[in-house]
Predict the 3D structure of the following.
Amino acid sequence: MLIDVISIFPEYLAPAELSLLGRARDAGLIQLRVHDLRDWTEDRHRTVDDTPYGGGAGMVMRPEPWGRAIDWVLEAAPPAGSALSGPPRREAQREPSETGAVTLVFPSASGSAFNQAAAEHLATAPRIVFACGRYEGIDARVVEHYRARAGVVVEEFAIGDYVLAGGEVAALVMIEAVTRLVPGVLGNAASLAEESHAQPGLLEYPVYTKPPTWRGIAVPEVLLSGHHARIAEWRRDQARRRTALMRPDLAPNAPWRPPSPPGS
Ligand code: JCZ
């Protein structure tokens, strides 16, 4: 998977280079490239913003640097040795995830909910480009333009119902949620398998390790019993109680659906 991020604060993405993702990158499973939007400005002051048409507070990101930056990134050859740089295969032989389409993600407080189903969908994409805005956001014509571009699938995602100062932290969150689902990235494949069996819309059951008693609090007896059926039943019950208590809103939820391909 090749991930490009475009931002006026490329240093914001430094944590993505760490830990889990850093190792996946070294192993060649994930390639991350971070770009400074100002490299695609053409004026002395490297201007990326201007006042909003129609008036109002704050500044809006001008479309021209975004258009040049995104075009450049879309056309940039995949790095040598990448699965994306192999010889072209006949259309009929290709999986939907390798049709060459690029997923262009605009983090936005007004986007659709980025949830685990969305992360699982994005994890099948061979190429993702994150366009991280700042100020009051990016001129709306940029999204409109790329929605009409062949070979580009545009997504606008919000990571939660709160307003961030820009798209960088949201991109970081999405990168972490997506890359841990890429086969081979997570050290423990078993925990992913377990997770995929977990009921969507059910919170996790509480977990314990040694010692059996800590500060006077004992590990629930059933977990020490070795009785696998009773343990499974206890965990199911705990997950249900926890969900009702912490997330009563998680009633059977409409799953997020991937967009239908252009022309269908
Ligand atoms: C650009 N402000 C991009 C995303 N979930 C969420 N909250 N806020 C955002 C977000 C805010 C932004 C920009 C300027 C995303």
